[in-house]
């Protein structure tokens, strides 16, 4: 089946091309699937063995969703349909992600497609997540090359082919990124200036409407003025009519003055509109020029009329497999980091122990020296003995001060080393958490496989423990008669 993330003209054209190649498959938008609570069992395509998804994308968003949000939708689809139709996820040959830059691996060896594959693997799904990427096959060359390339997929409607683009050098990649950034800046600036222009046009419109209203007021006032002049020929209410004449003349004068003021204002507004329009035209030309420069940085790697076939024929496009490779490498790296941290922790423990031992030794030495001093002081019984005691104290005082300073320095060093040790312990715990996240799904899978093997071995031992001619099939723990009617059967 096909799932469309967007409904623009380019996506619709791509879908029409694919539906011609695979006429027996159905098309759903993601919103339709969400509204049906992710249930696909009612679709005419049954069983569904492959899902191909189309939408606009970049390295961070696919159909406007980050990798975790998008993966959550896939997980809902898999869970819901596994419940409704057991084995649904196991029957899926692949999930294809068609869109720009989904298969681009950055310097941190991450890509949108790989992040999606990793999210699914954490939930126990090992379905191949496929996306366009460069055609090198060996892992080392693949990684090194891909660090210097970006991948794009676009549909040439006139040729009904999928064009796969990349870059020859790291310099081309950097240029592409630079031009993309500059183009985005110009586009945002253009949108802002267009918003200013729309506001300005609305202001001009309002001023013109105001002038029309003022002209209408002048016309109405002039008519009223003429009527008042006619009425002035009769002597009745002469003073009141004269007051009316003054009022309408003033109203006409004020309206004309306001119109002149608005005309001056419009002159400035029209000049500003002209400048804004010229500036927006310049921005559009600059945006087009940057877009051309950006596209000129990339080169076409391959054309294919059947993206599924291309993805199947190129193992490097299977990001579930790549995620496993990178996870293994990541686990090894984390294990090595943990071992290094543990060694560093042990070395710090030794240093702290050495300093503590030295401090205890010097502290005992000082206590012993104090006892000796007190004893010598108590033995003073003459001026000569006092002089001898003072000379002895002068020699000892330097050693006492030196050892006190050593103890003080050791205490400060122990405090600093202990803080570093605590920090390393926290880092080791963090590494343990990451290792658990990476290895837990595989440990669960290995346990499941181990349980199956144990069951098989148990059955084999059961069969071999009874002479062949005496084996009663009904005695087998796997025979239907051995299963209680109320037991839960899968």
Classified in CATH, the superfamily of the largest domain is MARTX cysteine protease (CPD) domain
**Mean pLDDT score:** 78
Rg, alpha carbons: 42 Å
- The unreliable regions are 136-159, 466-490
How many strands, what sense, and barrel or not for the largest sheet? 5 strands, parallel
Helix/strand/pairing category? alpha/beta
The CATH architecture of the largest domain comes to 3-Layer(aba) Sandwich
Cα distance spanning the termini: 28 Å
- Range of helix content: 55-70%
> Which of globular, elongated, flat, extended, rod-shaped describes the shape?
flat
Number of helices in the DSSP assignment:
11
Q: What is the CATH top level name of the largest domain?
A: Alpha Beta
- Amount of beta strand: 5-15%
String of helices and strands: EHEHEHHEHEHEEHHEHHH
Total individual domains:
3
What is the number of E strands?
A: 8
At CATH level 3, the topology of the largest domain is Rossmann fold
- Spatial strand order of the main sheet: 2-1-3-4-5
What's the arrangement of secondary structure elements?
Blueprint lengths: L1 E3 L4 H13 L5 E3 H6 L14 E5 L12 H18 L3 H4 L2 E5 L13 H11 L6 E2 L8 H8 L5 E5 L4 E6 L3 H62 L6 H60 L1 E6 L2 H7 L5 H60 L4 H82 L26
Parallel strand pairs: 1-2, 1-3, 3-4, 4-5
Antiparallel strand pairs: 6-7, 7-8
């Amino acid at each position: 089946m096909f799932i469309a993330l967007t409904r623009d003209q380019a996506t619709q054209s791509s879908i029409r091309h694919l539906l011609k190649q695979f006429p027996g498959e159905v098309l759903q938008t993601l919103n339709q699937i969400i509204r049906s609570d992710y249930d696909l069992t009612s679709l005419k395509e049954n069983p569904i063995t492959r899902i191909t998804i189309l939408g606009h994308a970049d390295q961070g968003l696919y159909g406007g969703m980050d990798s975790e949000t998008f993966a959550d939708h896939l997980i809902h689809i898999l869970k819901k349909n596994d419940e409704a139709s057991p084995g649904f996820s196991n029957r899926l040959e692949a999930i294809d992600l068609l869109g720009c830059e989904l298969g681009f691996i950055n310097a941190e060896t991450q890509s949108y497609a790989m992040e999606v594959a990793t999210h699914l693997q954490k939930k126990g799904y090992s379905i191949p997540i496929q996306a366009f990427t460069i055609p090198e096959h060996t892992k080392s060359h693949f990684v090194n090359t891909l660090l210097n390339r970006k991948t794009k997929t676009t549909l040439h409607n006139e040729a009904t082919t999928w064009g796969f683009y990349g870059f020859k050098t790291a310099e081309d990649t950097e240029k592409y990124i630079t031009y993309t950034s500059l183009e985005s800046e110009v586009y945002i600036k253009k949108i802002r200036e267009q918003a200013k222009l729309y506001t300005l046009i609305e202001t001009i419109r309002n001023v013109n409407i105001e002038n029309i209203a003022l002209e209408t007021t002048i016309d109405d006032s002039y008519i009223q003025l003429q009527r008042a002049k006619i009425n002035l020929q009769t002597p009745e209410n002469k003073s009141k009519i004269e007051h009316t004449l003054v009022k309408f003349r003033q109203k006409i004068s004020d309206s004309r003055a306001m119109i002149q003021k608005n005309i001056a204002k419009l002159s400035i507004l029209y000049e500003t509109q002209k400048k804004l329009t010229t500036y927006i035209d310049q921005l559009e030309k600059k945006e087009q020029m940057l877009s051309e420069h950006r596209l000129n940085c990339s080169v076409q790697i391959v054309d294919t009329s059947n993206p599924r076939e291309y993805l199947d024929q190129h193992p490097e496009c299977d990001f579930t497999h790549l995620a496993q490779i990178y996870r293994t490498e990541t686990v090894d790296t984390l294990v090595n980091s943990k071992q290094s941290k543990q060694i560093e922790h042990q070395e710090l423990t030794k240093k702290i122990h050495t300093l503590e031992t030295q401090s205890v030794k010097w502290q005992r030495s000082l206590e012993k020296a104090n006892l000796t001093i007190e004893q010598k002081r108590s033995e003073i019984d003459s001026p000569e003995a006092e002089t001898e005691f003072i000379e002895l104290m002068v020699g000892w005082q330097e050693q006492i001060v030196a050892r006190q300073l050593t103890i003080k320095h050791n205490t400060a060093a122990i405090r600093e080393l202990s803080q570093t040790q605590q920090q390393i312990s926290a880092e080791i715990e963090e590494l343990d958490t990451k290792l658990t996240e990476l290895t837990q799904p595989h440990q669960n899978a290995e346990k499941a496989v181990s349980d199956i093997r144990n069951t098989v071995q148990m059955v084999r031992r059961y069969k071999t423990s009874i002479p062949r001619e005496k084996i009663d099939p009904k005695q087998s723990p796997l025979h239907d008669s051995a299963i209680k009617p109320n037991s839960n059967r899968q």
